[in-house]
Amino acid sequence: MPRDSSSSEPLLGYRNGSSSYEDANTGDFTLTVQDLAELTDPTNPKPPRQLGGIIAICKALKVDPKIGLPSDEAGAVSVGNSDQPRFAARSKAFGRNILPPVKSASFFDLVYAAYNDRTLIMLSIAAVVSLGVGLYEDYGPHHIPGDVRVRWVEGVAILAAIAAVVFTNAINDYQKDKQFRKLNAKKENRFVKLLRDGREQEVNVKEVQVGDIMVLEPGDLLAVDGIILTSHNIICDESSATGESKALKKDPEDHCYLISGSKILDGSGTMLVTSVGAHSFYGRTMMALRQASPEETPLQIKLDSLADSIAKLGMAAAVAMLVTLVVKYFVERAISHNPFPPGGIIFSDMIRIIIQAITIVVVAVPEGLPMAVTLALAYATTQMLKDNNLVRVLSACETMGNATTVCSDKTGTLTQNKMTVVEGMIGMRQFDSHSNAKLWKSETRPEIVDLVIEGIAVNSSAFEDKDENGNIAFIGSNTESALLGLIKSLGASYSTIRSDTNTIRVYPFSSARKSMSTIVESPRGKEPYRIYVKGASEIVLGACSCYIDSHGDTKPLDAETRAKIGMAINEYADKALRTISLSYRDISSSEFKSLSDSETPDVSLTFLGVVGIQDPLRPGVVESVREFAKAGVTVRMITGDNINTARAIAKNAGILIKGGLAMTGPEFRELSKREQTEVVKRLQVLARSSPTDKTIVVRRLQELGEIVAVTGDGTNDGPALKMADVGFSMGVTGTEVAKEASAIVLMDDNFSSILKSLMWGRAVNDSVRKFLQFQLTVNITAVVLSFISAVTSADNQSVLSAVQLLWVNLIMDTLAALALATEPPSADVLNRYPTSKKAPLVTFRMWKMIIGQSIFQIVLNLALLQYGADIFHLKSQDGTMTREHTLTLHTMIFNVFVFLQVFNEFNCRRINGALNVFRNIKNDMIFIMVQVFVVVGQVAIVQFGGEAFKTTPLTLGQWAVTVLMGSLSLPVGVFLGLLPRRLIPEACMPNEPEEYHQALINPARLHWEGAANQALIQSNFFEAIRKTKPVARSNSSDSLVKDSLWKKSYGTTRTSLDSN
């Protein structure tokens, strides 16, 4: 059962003692970490015999290879204390199977990284100079007595605003890194099988110790180094560790070393663990790679490029503004009748102009774009984990949002993977329910029952242990667990049978063979050896030449009996049952000696029987398939099951619809490439498929422009998972190789979780586009407004001060990214088709809102700057404006500008043409909290900012007017949303390709073609019946002819409903 990791337990010292198995817990180890590390060094492997051989190494490590380590080793080893941690002396001597934690960046490191921006540094220098000039003017010899000393305030305010931006970014980065560290810890948390106390146990990989006996199975990804003890045709892939692309065969003699990072492709066996953690080959490699840079997703790369382009335009605007203001300053002073100002005043004025230009660059540079992607991904991946999606590759999150096809496994993904044998025909006697299996046993000869029970018990790798809840359950393949459950209900003990049977050779289940075989010694049989085979029903049946009848006699498998068994298989399959055939054969000594380790002797078998295993659909699968269809995503089922079983389950799930195609893997492989490309458009079910078939399907779909998501659980699914745009592996039943090849791990193996990942993927893409639309609008408005107002003003000052622009920058970058990138997905994201690969980052709807809102906001603010004094009655009786009046007008314009952005942020919540921008607002608490923070901050700045923010307190009436003007962004957004494209000049809008992906075949067309094809088939069927000449034949043969015709037409045998 899974054990809790004890990584927090301290390690204590121990005393010396003997090295025998019996006294294993009483002494030091005679081998060092270095001695063991040299064993599995790929460049210079030391043979085990140099250390005395395998037995001597086991003794040195104090382990009996037949029993494994004792779970209570710590109590006997500890120095008189019974409460010491388990394996403490062993861990102290050889280390633990964990790598030292990566030193994460401290908060101050993140502060430094956030501040390490050339623009911010330039602005800081300018602010310090401004502060120095202000202090000189306020406290220098030229200060006018009685004048308020406030010229230093602007420099301090700019520095404070820079600090606010830097610390806010650092806090966001700190939270993001914290979330990713949690995800990485979750990815590394898995379990392996060990032999301890003489029985197999599932143990957390972090608890594996040097000296443990590890059980190896196909699909295992080794996290430790070791030496092979027993091998049943183990084939190992060491390419990820050594670069050797050729699969290597391992044995206990000449090729006995296994290094961490390797993958078990085939075979089974056991190995002695010799190195763990940082001392293992994989650990040493990982320690050397820890300085690797973090990955960037395609969306981040695309946005980085866009941000660079925008920054260049912003820099150009800032340079133009700087040059214009400097030239204007000196021209005005030159033509003025007043004397030329002294150098100190000119220097002070130049500093203010430079600060404005640099501030324009700060506002124009959209550093929030990459941050928005990072925030969206960090938030989405954290929330997806709650939905049982563990994201291993960040780019998969955004890619899944545009997936157009999902190729799903059946067992455990679409179905519950809670398998029970409910029907069967063994020894040609049938039982029709699990409870009636005991009745079958009482009516069947004991030797047949014993043969079936022994075959199921020994030809299996599943075992019984405690599950996560402490309940006794079968651990391993669910199909094997169902078979073990059958013999358990018959009163047999699989463990007793296994211990009494000497297993000679095991050929583990292979997706290519679709069977598992085990050779055992057979002292009571006709020959000294016997092979038991179980697997796909028709494949095993095809390898049989004999069968055992109801009397226990072995007879040749003639055509009539084969047809009878085939009809039983089809009957179970039509009921959506998984069919497994059981068989055996006795093997002579001479034949056994000639057997190959790689080729199974599955020929001339004796058929024992076939069972039907029920695996009902998971709750919510039908609804999820329906939601996928609504979202424009085609679901295809690729399974190794019988075609009739696959077709029945696909129909029940809603995957196979009229016009859709169901076929087998061998049939698909026989097609030419052109035919495969045409077939795959309609393909909805591929049965009896191999991993190669899955890979071919993925490739053909990608060639047609599809974005393909694939599920897989087996080792051989690795290529398809890697090739797919998004690979989903099974967290419960998946092998470590499949998980390593996948981008997302389904922690519950549930198909409905894939739908949730689609929703989160679309939410990430939408979030980035929302933020992009908002930021481009603010960028354009702020830069243009600052430029025009500064150039046209008498004092060369923008209507928005440098500190005000830094507050705006904080709103539109950090806070907007936090607000718009963290909205959870709603069901609305499934109401549209996937976004096309060719669709631009900024769509027509977005450009319409960006350009329209920018023009409206610029015009409104410039109008207020020109006519605001008259509108708000801010002039004296003589028609002039005092300094207080000008400050009030500028404060009102600043307030209008900020609230235009606040309300426009609501517009940006919906970028797909929806008019109700408040929909689901109550579910977006982070957005609400950010808006509340912005409003409270704006009130504080306006009412109490004073000289630092260049504001003055507004009256209640002035607040109401400015907020009302800011809210005009909402109706303008509605107007722009309703504005049809035909009314917009072509020159104003870019030409863009189709925004949404179009299905390979329209579902409506598929339905119509399916209905027409079915009518044609039925017409042909009845025409064939009419033309059949009436000849004398038995009722049964007549029925067989009709069934044959029916099956040829519909691909299945008739049911009782069809007969009626």
Automatic annotation (TrEMBL):
Main subcellular location: membrane
GO terms assigned for molecular function: ATP binding; ATP hydrolysis activity; metal ion binding; P-type calcium transporter activity
Catalytic activity annotation: Ca(2+)(in) + ATP + H2O = Ca(2+)(out) + ADP + phosphate + H(+)
Coiled-coil ranges from the UniProt annotation: none
Enzyme Commission number, as recorded: 7.2.2.10
Pfam family, one: Cation_ATPase
Transmembrane domains' residue ranges: 119-136, 156-174, 310-331, 351-380, 846-867, 887-904, 925-944, 956-979
Keyword vocabulary terms for this entry: ATP-binding, Calcium, Calcium transport, Ion transport, Magnesium, Membrane, Metal-binding, Nucleotide-binding, Translocase, Transmembrane, Transmembrane helix, Transport, Vacuole
Superkingdom to which the source organism belongs: Eukaryota
Chain spans, region Disordered: 1-25
GO CC annotations on file: plasma membrane; vacuolar membrane
Bias kind Polar residues: ranges: 16-25
BP GO annotations: intracellular calcium ion homeostasis
Domain Cation-transporting P-type ATPase N-terminal residues, every copy: 50-135
Class of the enzyme per the UniProt entry, highest EC level: translocase
Localization annotation: Membrane; Vacuole membrane
Membrane topology type: Multi-pass membrane protein
UniProt xrefs under PANTHER family: CALCIUM-TRANSPORTING ATPASE (PTHR24093:SF369), CATION TRANSPORTING ATPASE (PTHR24093)
Family: Belongs to the cation transport ATPase (P-type) (TC 3.A.3) family.
Summary of the function given for this chain in its UniProt record: Catalyzes the hydrolysis of ATP coupled with the transport of calcium.
Protein known as: Calcium-transporting ATPase
Organism: Entomortierella chlamydospora
